[in-house]
Amino acid sequence: MRKREEKKKNGENRVEDDKRVKKKSVLVFVSLLFCTFLCMNPSFQQLVEFPEQYQVSQMEPQLNGFWSRIIKVEKIPSSNQIVSVASGKLSNSIGSEKLEVAYKLFGIFPLRSGEVEVMKPMKLIPGGQSIGVTLQTKGVMVVGQAPVVDKSGRKTFPAKDAGIEVGDILLKINNQEVRSDQDVSNAVHLAGEQKGSANVLFKHQDQILEKIVRPIFCVETGRYRMGLFVRDEAAGVGTLSFLDPESKQYGALGHVITDADTNQKIEIFNGKIIASSIYAIEKGKRGHPGEKIGSFVSNSSFMGSIEKNTMTGIFGKMSGAVVNPYFKEAISVGWESEVKVGPAKIYTVIQGEKIEEFNVNIDRVMHNRTDSKNMIVRVTDPRLLDITGGIIQGMSGSPIVQDGKLIGAVTHVFVNDSQRGYGVFIQNMLNETRQLEKNEAA
User: Per-residue pLDDT tens for 411-433?
Assistant: First the structure.
């Protein structure tokens, strides 16, 4: 009798244990399903991809509908609550508020936290104009090396032997500044004639160095030489990205200008942009990026100085008339947090000086990048694809507008897929104009 009762009791315990195990299994399964659902949800993925610091136009939860009910947002004023956006030169120079923001599932489990800079409204005029860019380097860049043949017929490399490399920037020769290839040629010849050696001050990467070079008399040219090819200026065609209608500050290209031979950033001494007219298109194809072929307009309706050459473009002040027929007035800036996967429009010139509107799609947004490759842009416009094959050289800087807001500019083309390329966030370009204004104010 007692054994039957014990068996019965044990059986009931096993049933209870089985029920508990099943409940736990169901809970684990449901939890896994929920986590999978979270991870696959585009809105949740966008939240997770946000960097630890980002800018928004207004402090609202990034998730809507169902997500706004289960994910709670906690906002705490940062220690640097009010910051200056600019020095006052930009017409949109107004304050911004910094907040520490934490996203929590059910208000308990932390998902994401970071510092948010809540921006006041800012408006700019989208560009699209084809521009001719000319600039003079700060110093003279070494773009190649060539042997000097002496009287005995021996080939020598005086500058190379002294430690001067391709990409270095010549600043002074025998304490005299050099700003052109002719300055270098004359200074080297004079040093060879008078002293037989030259003290060369130059910039190597981020270091300022000085070396003694012994020029060799070249029988072919009848002059003393040190065996270098140098360049003191650069020119090309690009696209204007934006203009502030009141301060006349502009941004263009969306990427840094580098030397064609060394691929190194060009340090600018001075430069300018003027209108350019496009008279031919070299269509892009796999492995061979296309190109706009244009000429500078001598009677340009506008002209701009080049004051900065940065990772996200060139910047300076504009004078004259800059007109985009699609935008009679300035439009709102779309901050990084507002950029999304989906359709957008770009504005660029493919014939003459006429700005045209074309359809594109933002295929991917990369929030954690601070360079000029923040989103992947794909051309979807049949007419643009037919004429250019997609994104081509000279299109760099073409403004990107999404949902009526200026969100960025085209910067690069994929070599093996001309339909696609990169774009830069407009806020990354604006960060450079802020730094420019701070330098002016100082």
Answer: 999 999 999 999 999 999 998 87
Which has more pLDDT, 1 or 110?
110
Asked if pLDDT for residue 358 goes beyond 70, the answer is yes
pLDDT in tens, 105-130: 666 666 666 666 666 778 999 999 99
Residue closest to 132 by CA, chosen among 279, 290, 269, 329: 279
Active-site residue, from 255, 337, 412, 418 = 255
Tell me the C-alpha distance between 191 and 173, whole Å: 8
Strands 130-145 and 268-282, sheet pairing: antiparallel
Q: What's the DSSP call for residue 314?
A: E
Selected catalytic residue, list 185, 396, 398, 418: 396
What pLDDT is recorded for position 269? Answer: 85
| 57 catalytic residue (yes or no) | no
- pLDDT attached to residue 91: 46
C-alpha closest to that of 130 among 343, 281, 340: 281
Q: Report how far residue 318's alpha carbon sits from residue 308's, in angstroms, rounded to the nearest whole number.
A: 13
25 in catalytic set: no
Tokens 């990354």 — which residue? 428
The pTM (predicted TM-score) of the whole model is 0.74
Distance CA 442, CA 438 (A): 6
Q: How far is 51 from 53, CA to CA, in rounded Å?
A: 5
- Catalytic, 255? Answer yes
What is the residue whose two structure tokens read 């006429």? 354
Please work out, in degrees rounded to the nearest 5, the angle formed at the alpha carbon of residue 35 by the alpha carbons of 31 and 36: 115
Catalytic residue, candidates 93, 381, 398, 412: 381
Question: Which 3 state secondary structure label does DSSP give 411?
Answer: strand
Between the alpha carbon of residue 370 and those of residues 277, 373, 375, 389, the distances in Å are 32, 8, 11, 28
Mean pLDDT of 399-404: 97
**Exposed e or buried b per residue across 142-168, where buried means at least 16 C-beta atoms within 10 angstroms of its C-beta:** bbeeeebbeeeeeebbbbbebebebbb
List of long-range contacts for 403-407, beta carbons under 8 Å, 24+ apart = 403/334, 403/338, 404/331, 404/332, 405/331, 405/332, 405/333, 405/334, 405/338, 406/124, 406/126, 406/242, 406/331, 406/332, 406/333, 406/334, 407/333, 407/334, 407/338, 407/339, 407/344
